[in-house]
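Lab notebook, bench 4. Still working through the backlog of constructs that have no structural model yet. Next entry is a single chain of 337 residues. Request: give me the structure tokens for it.
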Amino acid sequence: MLRELSEYIGVSGGEQSIREFIKEQIKKDVDEMIEDAYGNLIVRKGNVTSPRILLTAHMDEVGFIIVGIEKSGLLRFATIGIAPQVLYAKRVVIGKKAVPGVIGHKPVHQIKIEETEKLSETKDLFIDIGVSSKEEAKKHVDIGELGTFCTEFREVGDAIFGKAFDDRIGCYMLMQVLKKTDVPLHCAFTVQEEAGLRGARIAAYRVNPHVAIAVDATASGEWPEEKDVPLYPEIGKGPVITIADRSLICDKELVALLEKTAQKHSIPYQFKKPMIGGTDAGAIHLTRQGVRAVAMQTAARYIHSPLSIANKKDIKAGIKLLINSLEEIAQEEAHWS
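Model written out:
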């Protein structure tokens, strides 16, 4: 299932296909399923009374939107969550027809020496779909269509390679939790996280949870750091607990609960480097009167790029930590309500 989740195209604002896949896979595991006006998929398992628990994972992935078509048939684009340095000469697919293309740049032999000394911006790049006129290009692609990288999923031992691990890994984990837990809860598969945590705010308002856990992916870093500087998490060392990032300071009791639960069940875990990145929890904790929120993530190398690497052991451990943490929260009903 990780293969299908990774290879589906679902850039922010265009999550329809991945949402339909998830709906089909979990329909027998939930008691209620709602698709809201914004595109979030919100499901309920069991008779949720108190505490109301919400798990979220975002369906969308980074990508780009077509903003113009040149007379030559080359496509101009704007990025959604992608830095220019990962774009050169990458294979892409565009729109519902999955039109293939490649991201191009002015040929090296035509670039002045001083131009080679600076990093090109997105405005310097274009997408070539192999046509020679604007009229021909418009037969295949419209302005406003979304696209992303053309990357095939593969496995090597416990390592998995693919695109959109941020956050199709989280979607997979929620789907597994729904199959394996009896704790009543809501799960929201959210939209437009990469465009500003938009779907999560709407989903949280609808559910009005007491407790929320955002299940996401985070950048790993297996390179040397300066002495006494907090490290990035690494793949293969267990799920990642967030204390604070750019979007929120996590609820201290929930952080402690995740850590104690991991220790109790001999689940390896690590902490995220503070004040880096953000998750749906950053929007959820500000909803209504405020929500206790925390983020639990899976480390992956090279997120927001054409290909990421993650470890199946981390995913399995993360699912175990979520299930056991849900049981701990349910047992202390009065405290979390």
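Notes after review: The mean pLDDT is 92. The chain has ten helices and 17 strands. Flag for follow-up if needed.
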